[in-house]
Structure formats: C-alpha cells, structure tokens
Design a protein that fits this description.
The complex is a heterodimer. Chain A is an alpha+beta fold. Chain A is built from ten helices and 15 strands. Chain A folds into four domains: about 5-105, 2-Layer Sandwich (Alpha-Beta Plaits), CATH 3.30.70; about 115-190, Alpha-Beta Plaits (2-Layer Sandwich), CATH 3.30.70; about 195-260, Alpha-Beta Plaits, CATH 3.30.70; about 275-300, no CATH class. In chain A, strand 2 (about 15-20) and strand 3 form a beta hairpin. Chain A starts with a strand and ends in a 5-residue tail after the last helix. Chain B has five domains: about 1-140, Rossmann fold (3-Layer(aba) Sandwich), CATH 3.40.50; about 145-320 and about 515-525 and about 540-565, FAD/NAD(P)-binding domain; about 335-495, FAD/NAD(P)-binding domain (3-Layer(bba) Sandwich); about 575-630, Alpha-Beta Plaits (2-Layer Sandwich), CATH 3.30.70; about 640-805, 3-Layer(aba) Sandwich (Rossmann fold). Chain B has 22 helices and 38 strands. In chain B, strand 37, helix 20 (about 730-745) and strand 38 form a beta-alpha-beta unit. Chain B is globular, with a radius of gyration of 31 Å. The chains are: A alpha+beta, B alpha/beta. Chains A and B meet through helix 3, helix 8 and helix 10 of A and strand 13 of B.
Chain lengths: ~300, ~800
C-alpha cells in the first residue's frame, strides 16, 4: 500500500490524514469550535492552511470564515493545534491525541489562566454561565454529600452548599467576559493575547457590521446608536477574524503585542510570534529573555545585525 | 596527393550471409570494371585471419594504395580493417567499407537479382569515395587519469573499488543521501539467502575509506563537456544543511526533531525524522535536513551543541571535475502500479509491491521484520504473489524484468521458513525463469517447502470491504479454466524500469537509449559495456536489468574498460574533424560567424574581421558547420563535399528515378538501418545510402545534386528530436535547413513526398523497414513519368544553383 493522503469533510468536522503501512497521522478540525480566525493560518510553517470566506447574503448575518487544510502540505507538526485559542484543532498519531512539537519542546502552549474562587460564589448566581459567549461554563451546586441540586430556592441551609464552576479550559480563549460579569469578583482570567484594536470611524462604512457578525465574543464589538460598530477592548481576544471580513482597507486595525505561553525557546516559535505580532515585539521578547543565540539567528534571517 | 589511386576491392561471402543472396562472383567481376580498381578478390570470411592476410598480401603485390571491403556494416568491422591495412603499411584512412550485408543481402533475401544490383551500386559508391580519400593522421589527446562514476549502487561501487585499486582517482557521484542503491534496501539475497546489507555494508565502508575514492553524495550531474580522456563535468552538491566534516553521525539531532516524515527508503511504509539518515548503515554517515518538512524550530541546533554541524544557510554548491572516463551506473526504479486498476494497488490496503514486502520482512524495517497487513496489523495467513505486473506486457513494458521470479521465490521461501505452516503461499506466474548458478535449485527448495505454483495470469483482484481480504481471479493454464483464490495479502512483482532521470542523463552524456528506455550499448554482443560515446561506459541495470552478481561483474567489466583509457598517457581520436580554409572564409569581409553559432560544441571561433578557426581537440566531427557554411570554406576530413558528391553521382549513374538516395546519420538512422538488416526485416531495394556522421552534415547541395541527377526520392534520416542527437543539436540545424529547402523545392514543382526528413533511432529497425516500404510504394504511385517530368522542370534551376560546385 502506498502512502495515502486523505481529506474528508462533514458538517461538523474536517479531517486530513496521512496513512502509512505502519503509522497514521490525522489532523481534525472541529468546525463547531472554529471561528475562522487567522491564527492557525498565520503560523502554519508549511502554509497548509487557507481561510475561506463566505459571500454576504442580503438580510442575513455574515457567516464567519472557515479554515481549509491542504492534505498535501500538512506535516502534522501540531503547531496549529497548540496555538488555536478555541481548541478547534487536534493532531492524532495512531489515534492518540498528541502535539508532536510540544512533546519535543519545540513549541510552547498557550497559558490559559482562569481562577475561580467558588467560596465567593452565591449559590443562586449563574451569571458567568450566562455570560460565556462560547458556552464553556457550567455552574452546579452540590450538597456536602455531593448531590447536585437543581432548585436552590428550596434549600434552607445555603451556607453548606458548595458551588462548582466547571470551565472547559482547553477551549477557552480567555475573553474575560465572565470575570467582568461576575458580581462577586470570583473569577479571574488573564488574557492570552494582548494587543490593540481600533476602528477607524471615518473609513468604516456605515451600515456594515460584518465584523460584528463574525466576532465570536459577544460584546467585544457593539453597534452604537449612530449605526457604527465600536470596540470594547476589555473583551477582545485579538483573534483577528474581524479583520479578515472587513471590506474596507484600514477601517479596522488590529495589532497583537504579546502572547502568554509556556516557556520554550525555539526558532519555530520565534517565527510564529513574529507572524502573529511584529518583528518589534519579537525582538522585545527575545531581549527580555536574553536568548542571544536565537536572536542572532533570527537577526541573520531578517538581515539585520547578528554577529 | 598526386599518386594515381590503385584500388583493391575485397568481396566477403560472410559464409552464406552475403553469398546466399548476392551473386558474389558477378559482384567481384563488376568491381574489376570500376575506375582505378586494380584487383578484386572474393573471400569466405574477409574478417578472419586468412581474409585479412589476403588483403595485406594484395596491398603489397598490387601496390594498392586504397582498399574497399564489401562486407558488413562499418559500425561492425571498420576498425578491424583499418588496423589490417595499417599493418600492411597503408594509412588506415585510405580504406572504405561497402556495407552489402546489413544494407543488401540481409534485407532483400527474396530478390537476389535486385540485391546484387544494389550491392554493385554500394561498391561503386565506396570506390568513388575511396578514390578521393587522403591519408589522415589520428590525433592524440592527453588523458586525465581520473574516472567519474555516476550512481553508487552495487554496480557503481564495484567499478569504483576496482578502478581505485588499480590506482586511479575515482569520483563516485550519488544523487541520494547514501551510496548503496537498491541492494541496501533488500533483506536477503537469492539464492544463498545471505543478508544483503551485511555483504554490501563492508563494501560501502571500503569505498568511503579508500584513499583513491571521493564520494560526492546528494549531488547531481549537471553537464558533461569535452571528449574521451578529457571530460569536464559540472556537479551540483545539494545542501544537506549539515556541515559534513562536523557531523559525527551520533543522531542526537534526530532524537529531538519533532517532525516525522514518510521514509522513501522504506517505500513510505515507515517514518524518519526531518533530520535523519535514510538507514543506519548509510555511507557517508552524514545527516540531512529535509527542508520540505522542517519547521525550523532549531531543536537540532541545540542538540548538536558545540559540534556546530548544522547550518541552515547552506546553499547548493557547484563543482567542476576533470576526468578521463565516465562510467554510468544509474540503475533502475520499481514501477508503481497505481495506474493498474485491475489489481487495486493504492486502493486496497493489503495489495503491496514486492519491494514493500522486502521492507516489511527486513528486521531493520518499519515493522521490525514482522510481515503485517496495513488494514489490521495482523499477520496474513494466505499470501499470493502475482508475477509479471507490468513486465512482459505489450501494453506496459514489453521486456522481462529478469529478477522478479527469483525474488518472489526468495520471499515465499522466507515466509515459509519464518511462519512454517501458519502461512500458505501461492505464486501466480507466466513462466518461472530460474537460469544462472544455483537458481533452479532455489526453485526446487521453494517447491519442497510447499509453495503452491499456479501457472496463469491474474486477471482481477477484488477486496472484501469488511475483512479487507482479497479475491484473486486468475486463469489456471494447467486446468484451462478460471479460478478464484482468497488471500489476506497480495504481493505484486512489478516491473523494473529505467531510473527517473535516465532521459536527462542520456542527454547530458549524449548516450542513446533503446526502445525500453535503458541506455544503449555500443554493440549488443561485442561491446555490451561501451556506449557510442568514446570514454563513456555502462555498468549495472541502467543498460538492462540485472541481478546482483551480474551487476557486480559488469561493474568490474566497466572498470577494466575504463582502465584501458586511463592507463594510457594519451588517446587517439579520429581525425574526422572540420577545417576552415581561411582564404575562402567570408568572415574576413562581412560579419558572418554562422559556423561558430551553429557548432554544438562551441569549437569554432570567428572573431570579427578574421577567418573562423576550429579548435581541433574540441571538434567532435559532426560536420554541421560544413553544411552551414555559406561559402563552402569548411571541410570535414573523410567526409568532404567532393567525396560525398562522388558517392551521390556513383549511386545515381543508372536509372536514378528508381532510386531513393538516403543520407543516414551514423549513430541513429544508419544504426537503425543496420538493425533492420540484422533483424532480417525485408524491404524494397530502392535505397542507396550515404553515411554521414551526423545529419547536421547533410548539405542542401547534396539534396539538390541528387535531384539534379534525377533521383526518384531523397531521404534525410536523423536521430529523434530533441535530445537523441549524438552531437547535441546537429539534427536541429539539419531540420531548420531542410525545412527551408523543402519549401523551395515544392515551389519549384517537386512533389513533397519525394523529399523526406525522417527520424529513426538505432532501435527502430522496424520503422526503418516500414519507411522504405512506404517510400517505395509512394514512388510507384507517383510513376516514373511524373518523376522524370518533374526532374526536367527542376533541372535548370538546380544547375544554376549548383554551378559553383561544378568547378
């Protein structure tokens, strides 16, 4: 049997596979999680990922873009999987979920820091669950003996109940909506991506709200009374899907400046970082870490300095 | 030379090969009547000692100063007779062969009268030409005593070691990362079942340690210039992104590399890392980064550390070598039958090729030597081998690949010995071909082990979608009826084919290829290692499929052939080069330089205002410049205008309108015509052939002269475009020239079918015979009357155009 490179697509999934006689590899995209942002496309070292946008249908909300993977180009390194803020991509080797580049410490993972102090929670409060734009939070209340209670009203001794806030961390892009909506200051979220986003109102065509249509985080963009879209930077995760669909050059400016990641120094990461942020930010990170050797090699590649 | 020619004609019977068809007595009598012929002698075998002695005797006795031997093809015995006349004190270039065997007796056996008439014309043409011969002196060129071997498989390794042991410097160029070739991929070798890498590995190490051998691996040959003894070879070393001198082969970089890639060495069955060696015994043991897969994480750089062997900035490097001889040992590839829908390879998980099985059965392979199915990883209980997949198939590859019977026997014996009765083995075959030492015994061993042999061709394979088992439908020739067999694994013995890039290599070396795509040897029997290019030799499967012992023998044979050149300080080359008459050259008066532009070898310089000049050592003697020169200032030695005109006139002296005057290039079309003769393809005897070294030599004047003299038809036959030309591009120049001439002749009233340019390769004997039949047919339907009338109409114009030649 020769090597097989396959691609199958269903309503919910896109799977590319490389099947050898003794080993098989797959990359699965969960389409229900993918928002069509540009991150995986930007960082794929082999340019195997493309973004497909949908045409606008009058009177309907614009559908968010979707990614497509070229089975001829994908080498199953797992870089996309390790950096997808929504956890939409998974690499499997012989059926087992692994991220090869993370395993060999060739690439970092995102740090998703979500602290919930349930001691502060009110047993009747489900604000965070309601607020999560991706429906990743499940709040439950249990009795001391572990029984789940649906109707908290009827319980007399509310102090003895414990609140459990279950967050699907691996899928969470850390937008902080839950933190800001929490009335008891019980949740603390640190953003993964930092940056700036600005809508240039002179250029922004009025009546267009494509960016708002595709934004995965409710409230990160909002429609004002003047019919224009404005940004709420508190919530923005800098995924960049808004920029992809924006029809007017320069109307929406997005710049990532910093990414929280596990400590790894590798050429592939430097490249990814540069693509996602900018050369300036890359140099900044390299300087703070004092990675002389890596900096030199990057400098050489970019044609400035080095030794 | 003012001396009056005294010509001796020696007619050879060649046993009955010639005398059985041609009336040799009549021919000899006729030869005596030709001008300047002072003696004509018949002999049963002129090439044998007594025959040669007769020539030497006659030279002395009759004071001969020219000799014609009417026998076989000059491609066969011209060197023999040149030596013979030289022994008698005659300049070897005062000799000419009249090819009456391949061009007459062998191709016109059923028309002996016409064959004899044709033989007379052939002799007449040879006599006419030999009269104008001048003595020539062979040129001596210095020999660079270094050899280049292209391809580091077992054949190339054998050649390299032999030549190096003889004391010559050897460059061994290999395009992949390691030498070893296909043999290094194999598990066991037949019929002894010894481990392949265990016997080849030490040889590979010997090569790397030999002080006289330089391995240039991961490199491509870009171009070859020069000539025997003096080749200049350009080679591109591809970047490994590893500094070879610093790499210790420890493999620490491989361990940290995150990227696994399909291993081509394992037929993509297993994986290797993006930085790795193809196999543990690789020579040279230098790692390579595959940039198609590398994600540049630089983990390997960290792992390599202070050794600093990794360099991502490495660029391809071009080097130039000077060598005296080149041995081509580029080997073969295995046909991947993904275009064969009947056997389902590529669609069915459990249909594999034999080379894939080889990697499975090998202990160092991706499964650690376990033969398992791709579909479920289980050991198959019934294995069916299907022979001749692609081989011996007129729709695919007509030839027998030679070693498949033996390797299928080997695999079946290995399976039987490994798994005993737990596996049932069938071989579906057409013929079991087990010649050579120990092979038939091997076949018996397989039968004794209980392998089932079924004679018949597999027609179709079907897969059970659930179990992934396979149903093989075949015809059992012993029963004479269709049968069905159930298998858990099917192994296809696929054809072996010329390796990828053989066409490109043929072009670079100006070596011809046969119809099967393999390199063509100079003579199938007597020069199986030589090519038509002096100083270029063949070893191993690139010339035709061979097993290991045969490849090793031919490798050693090639070493010995190469050493015949390398061991000499100088080498003689034929003086059939071009010379410019500075007085006639018009480059002194006008800006011309056509010859310099048309020379395929850049051997001519024509500085402004000065006569053109040929660098003799670079001239290969194609004659393209001679034909192109607008003022007839260039002459090709031994193929002068006067000599060829004499041949044309002799051929067309009688009944010209019945004849086809053909100009055949020595390497392809003349060889193709020879092949038509040796294959005994019969065709009508109208052709009178003039041999030129290259079709590029065919002057417009030759065609016009033939038509002026009333030739029925004119044919120019050349090597195939674009790459087959032995002189790089002589055929291209001819094509341009002849297309313009054809347009003009047509305007003047010539029927277009009367002047043809055709391309016939050395392997196309059938095509040559068919071409002659077709032309004779056309000539007949045109009719003598029309031909004569056309000629009358053409003649005044042609005479005007040729008037300068008359002088």
């Amino acid at each position: 049997m020769p090597m097989k490179l396959l691609k199958t697509e269903t309503e919910k999934e896109l799977v590319v596979k490389r099947i050898l006689h003794t080993k098989n590899y797959s990359l699965t995209l969960d389409k229900t999680l993918c928002t069509g942002c540009e991150i995986c496309k930007e960082i794929c070292p082999k340019e195997a990922i493309e973004i497909k946008t949908f045409p606008k249908v009058a009177g309907e909300k614009l559908k968010h873009p979707i990614i497509d993977v070229d089975e001829q180009k994908c080498h199953f390194c797992g870089i996309c999987s390790s950096l997808c803020p929504f956890g939409a991509l998974k690499v499997r080797v012989d059926g087992e979920h692994v991220i090869p580049v993370v395993k060999t410490e060739s690439f970092p993972e995102l740090i998703r820091e979500i602290d919930v102090d349930t001691a502060k929670c009110d047993v009747q409060c489900v604000e965070c669950e309601k607020a999560c734009p991706l429906e990743l939070i499940k709040v439950s209340v249990r009795t001391p003996d572990g029984k789940e209670i649906m109707d908290t009203e009827s319980i007399q001794d509310k102090e003895k109940l414990t609140v459990i806030v279950d967050v699907k961390k691996e899928l969470c892009p850390c937008c902080r909506v839950c933190e800001l909506k929490c009335p008891y200051d019980a949740i603390h979220v640190k953003k993964i991506f930092h940056g700036t986003i600005r809508i240039n109102q002179e250029k922004c065509p009025s009546g267009c709200q494509d960016c708002l249509d595709v934004c995965p985080i409710t409230g990160a963009l909002y429609l004002s009374e003047d019919g224009k879209v404005y940004v709420n930077e508190l919530y923005c995760i800098y995924c960049g899907v808004c920029k992809i669909v924006c029809p007017e050059e320069g109307a929406l400016e997005l710049q990532r400046t910093y990414i929280r990641h596990t400590p790894v120094h590798s050429g592939a990461w430097n490249k990814a970082l540069e693509k996602l942020t900018s050369t300036k930010e890359l140099t900044k990170e390299l300087q703070t870490k004092g990675l002389t050797k890596v900096r030199e090699s990057v400098g050489k590649r970019l044609g400035f300095g080095g030794s | 030379m003012s001396e009056e020619p005294r010509i001796g004609v020696f007619v050879c019977h060649c046993g009955l090969n010639i005398a059985g068809v041609i009336d040799v007595e009549e021919l000899t009598e006729y030869a005596r009547t030709l001008p300047n012929v002072v003696c004509a002698i018949r002999n049963r075998y002129t090439c044998a000692d007594p025959g040669q002695e007769e020539i030497r005797k006659a030279i002395k006795e009759h004071k001969l100063n020219r000799v014609v031997v009417a026998a076989c093809s000059p491609r066969m015995h011209e060197p023999t007779f040149r030596r013979c006349v030289a022994e008698a004190g005659l300049n070897p270039y005062l000799f000419e062969m009249a090819n009456i065997r391949e061009f007459s007796s062998w191709c016109h056996p059923s028309t002996p009268k016409e064959a004899t008439e044709k033989a007379k014309d052939i002799v007449k043409m040879a006599v006419a030409k030999v009269r104008l011969f001048r003595p020539l002196k062979s040129m001596e060129v210095p020999v660079t005593n270094k050899a280049l071997i292209i391809g580091g498989g077992i054949a190339g390794i054998s050649t390299a070691l032999d030549l190096a042991d003889m004391g010559f410097k050897v460059y061994l160029v290999e395009r992949s990362e390691s030498i070893g070739g296909h043999m290094a991929q194999l598990d066991k070798t037949f019929p002894t079942l010894d481990c392949s890498i265990c016997i080849e590995g030490p040889k590979m190490v010997d090569v790397s340690r030999h002080p006289n051998i330089e391995i240039i691996s991961y490199a491509n040959v870009l171009s070859v210039q020069g000539f025997v003894g003096n080749f200049r070879v350009k080679i591109r070393k591809n970047p490994r992104y590893i500094i070879a001198e610093n790499c210790t082969g420890c493999g620490e970089c491989r361990d940290v590399c995150p990227i696994e890639i399909p291993n081509e060495w394992d037929m993509n069955m297993g994986v290797r890392k993006a930085i790795s060696v193809p196999f543990d015994q690789a020579v040279p043991l230098v790692y390579t980064i595959n940039m198609d897969y590398c994600i540049e994480c630089y983990k390997c750089v960290d792992a390599c550390g202070a050794r600093q062997a990794i360099n991502f900035d490495q660029k391809p490097e071009e080097i130039e070598l000077e060598v005296g001889t080149i041995v081509t040992a580029t080997g073969f590839d295995i046909y991947v039958p993904d275009d064969n829908s009947l056997y389902g390879y590529g669609r069915y998980d459990n249909v594999i090729t034999a080379l894939e099985l080889e990697r499975l059965i090998l202990a160092a392979g991706p499964t650690g030597g376990k033969v398992v199915r791709a579909s479920d990883g289980k050991k198959p209980k019934v294995v069916i081998f299907i022979q001749c997949v692609g081989s011996r198939d007129v729709n695919k590859y007509e030839y027998c690949s030679g070693f498949c019977c033996m390797y299928s026997l080997k695999h079946s014996i290995q399976l039987k010995e490994k798994y005993k009765d737990a596996v049932e083995v069938y071989i579906l075959y057409m013929d079991m071909r087990t010649h050579f030492k120990g092979y038939e015994e091997f076949y018996r061993r397989a039968r004794e082990l209980g392998v089932n042999f079924i004679r018949g061709r597999a027609v179709h394979i079907l897969e059970n979608p659930e179990t992934k088992n396979l149903t093989v439908r075949a015809e059992d020739m012993a029963l004479g009826e269709p049968i069905e067999l159930e298998a858990e694994l099917v192994v296809l013995a696929t054809a072996a084919i010329p390796t990828k890039g053989t066409d490109e290599m043929a072009r670079i070396l100006s070596v011809t290829r046969g119809a099967d795509g393999f390199f063509m040897e100079s003579h199938p029997k007597l020069k199986p290692i030589d090519t038509a290019v002096d100083g270029v030799f063949l070893a191993g499967a690139c010339q035709g499929l061979k097993d290991i012992p045969y490849s090793v023998s031919q490798g050693s044979g090639a070493a010995s052939r190469a050493a015949t050149i390398l061991s000499k300080p100088t080498w003689k080359i034929e003086p059939i080069i071009a010379m410019v008459d500075p007085d006639k050259c018009r480059n002194t008066r006008v800006k011309c330089g056509i010859c310099a532009r048309k020379c395929p070898y850049g051997a001519i310089k024509a500085p402004e205002g000065e006569p053109a000049e040929v660098t003799t050592a670079m001239c290969h003697g194609c004659g393209t410049c001679v034909a192109e020169c607008p003022s007839d200032a260039i002459t090709q030695m031994h193929f002068t205008d006067a000599q060829i005109f004499a041949q044309i006139r002799a051929a067309l002296e009688e009944n010209p309108e019945d004849k086809i005057l053909g100009f055949l290039c020595n390497w392809c079309s003349y060889a193709g015509a020879d092949l038509a003769g040796t294959s005994r393809f019969e065709y009508p005897p109208n052709l009178r052939a003039v041999r030129v070294m290259c079709s590029g030599r065919v002057d417009r004047d030759f065609v016009m002269e033939a038509l002026r003299l009333g030739a029925g038809m004119v044919l120019v036959a050349a090597c195939h475009l674009p790459y087959d030309c032995h002189y790089i591009s002589g055929n291209e120049a001819m094509k341009v020239r002849m297309e313009a001439l054809a347009r003009m002749l047509e305007k003047l009233g010539l029927s277009p079918e009367r002047f043809r340019v055709e391309y016939v390769s050395a392997a196309e004997g059938v095509k040559f015979a068919d071409l002659n039949k077709e032309m004779a047919e056309q000539m007949k339907s045109l009719g003598k009357g029309k031909i004569k009338a056309e000629n009358e109409k053409l003649r005044p114009m042609l005479e005007k155009m040729l008037s300068r030649k008359k002088a």
